[in-house]
Amino acid sequence: MPHCTKCGTIVAGNAAFCGNCGAAQTGSQPAASIAPAGVNAHPEMAENVAGALCYALVWITGLIFYFVDKRPYVRFHAAQSIVVFGSITILHEFLRTFFGFSSITGDWTGFSLGFALWRLLHLVGLILWILLMVKAYQGERFRVPIAADFAEKLFGKA
To answer: Most buried residue among 26, 30, 68, 78 by CB atoms closer than 10 A?
Structure first.
């Protein structure tokens, strides 16, 4: 049994202070927190949450989760996010550059085929973004038909 270094009173082994005189006990350490049996002391993010977050900032978070998280479910969604939203970003920039929103081609006030395609691409991107996040959060491996196959070829089967 340990004793107080100041007054000699018996103190508990993990006591930081003496109950009699209040002196700090130098040899004692604070009690370590012990996790209950079956509980992970370092909890990982749930797979469905990580899968949904792969789509949060489109291809950027997909890239981050692809290199950080090695679980197959998360890597599948990360690779699909990179391919789907990376290709949408490239198409978006191509349409913007090719059709050039100037006064000759319709600008923001007029109508042009390029502007219509550009806005349609925004709508498709928004719908895919919401759908893929919801499906990933529900625990489903929802496959975008062409993009999922391309992602498996590019990044390997996850």
So the answer is: 78
**Count of C-beta atoms within a 10 Å radius of residue 16:** 13
Model pTM above 0.90: no
Using an 8 Å Cβ cutoff, are 63 and 42 in contact? no
For residues 48 and 73, what is the distance between their CA atoms, to the nearest angstrom? 8
**pLDDT digits 0-9 by tens, 102-111:** 545 455 555 6
Distance of CA 58 to the CA centre of its chain: 11
Q: Considering only CA atoms, which of 90, 91, 65, 93 is closest in space to residue 155? A: 65
Mean of pLDDT values over 66-90: 95
CB atoms inside a 10 Å sphere around CB 139: 12
| Cβ burial, residue 32 (10 Å; 0-12/13-18/19+) | exposed
- How many residues can be counted in the chain? 158
CB–CB of 25/5 below 8 Å? Answer: yes
Q: What share of the chain is helix, strand, coil (3-state, %, to 5)?
A: 50, 5, 45
For residue 15, the 8-state DSSP code is -
